[in-house]
UniProtKB/TrEMBL annotation:
Coiled coil: none annotated. One of its GO terms (molecular function) is N-acetyltransferase activity. The keyword Acyltransferase applies. Keywords: Acyltransferase, Transferase. It comes from the Eukaryota. Residues 78-216 form the N-acetyltransferase domain. This is Acetyltransferase (GNAT) family. InterPro entries: Acyl_CoA_acyltransferase (IPR016181), Diverse_Substrate_AcTransf (IPR051016), GNAT_dom (IPR000182). Gene3D superfamilies: 3.40.630.30. CDD domains: NAT_SF.
Length: 220
């Protein structure tokens, strides 16, 4: 083998192409698996009742709603070769980066998370966001409900890439801010957000009315 061929092989093992694109219905099985993994990570599987069908109906209604002005999922795909041109993405131009790895990554879930788009693409993470509104600012913002990178691929800048994709979109749309909510014990995620420039707001608590409480209030 020539030295240049050897170098190319090594380069393939030590780098990967990452692409963030708008999800569609075909991504639902992977999104469902990713949300389940997030619930397991957060020790909240007792709250996880979404099915592929309910995700599909709620995230991808027909007629479709405009991305970032409604529920929006971006999926992160990885490939060992450059992505082919994406001709069907008028609403959100995919973001592609080459990620240098210190060594080849073993992904035991690669088959389970194969992308519906084929070409050896593996889905490694996602972010789910939707618009909110600040009366103080009189501006729309984006709220990140879920952000997740599968365990095999963490600490390689992919979470940063997902968060930057949402933040960049918010900036481009003239929005006021991007919010997220993190469990108080999730110190790694807190470090992650802080590293991205986020302030952890100490004074706020989530006040949640769950479905049975909503029903109880209907008659009032
Ligand atoms: C949080 C999460 C999305 C970060 O994704 P990631 O791809 O691992 O993050 P990145 O590699 O882009 O990290 C960017 C920076 O965040 C910080 N960071 C990320 N993970 C960290 C960890 N485990 N410990 C300490 N700092 C961390 C670091 O400063 C890191 O930069 P560095 O690697 O150059 O030091 C990912 O760890 C994850 O999916 N965790 C489980 C689910 C979760 O906690 N989601 C957020 C809940 S709202």
């Amino acid at each position: 083998m020539s030295s240049s061929a050897a170098a190319t092989q090594e380069e393939t093992a030590a780098s990967v192409w990452a692409r963030i694109r708008l999800a569609d219905r075909r991504d639902v099985p992977n999104i469902h698996r990713l949300i389940r993994q997030l619930a397991e990570f957060e020790l909240l599987t007792h709250l996880f009742s979404a099915t592929e069908a309910s995700l599909s109906d709620t995230l991808f209604p027909s007629p479709s709603l405009p991305p970032f002005l409604s529920f929006t999922v971006l999926v992160l795909g990885l490939s060992h070769s450059p992505f082919s041109e994406d001709g069907d993405a008028p609403l959100f131009a995919p973001i592609v980066r080459r990620i240098d790895l210190e060594s080849a990554v073993e992904d035991p879930e690669a088959v389970e998370f194969a992308s519906p788009r084929g070409e050896g693409i593996v889905v490694a993470g996602f972010v789910l966001c939707f618009p909110n509104y600040s009366g103080y600012l009189a501006k729309l913002g984006l709220y990140i409900e879920d952000i997740f990178v599968r365990a095999a691929w963490r600490r390689r800048g992919l979470g940063r890439m997902l968060l930057a994709a949402v933040a960049g979109q918010a900036a481009q749309m003239g929005m006021g801010r991007v919010d997220s909510c993190v469990l108080d014990w999730n110190v790694n995620a807190i470090k992650f957000y802080e590293d991205m420039g986020a302030e952890v707001v100490p004074m706020r608590r989530i006040c949640r009315l769950t479905m049975n409480k909503l029903a109880a209030l209907v008659d009032e």
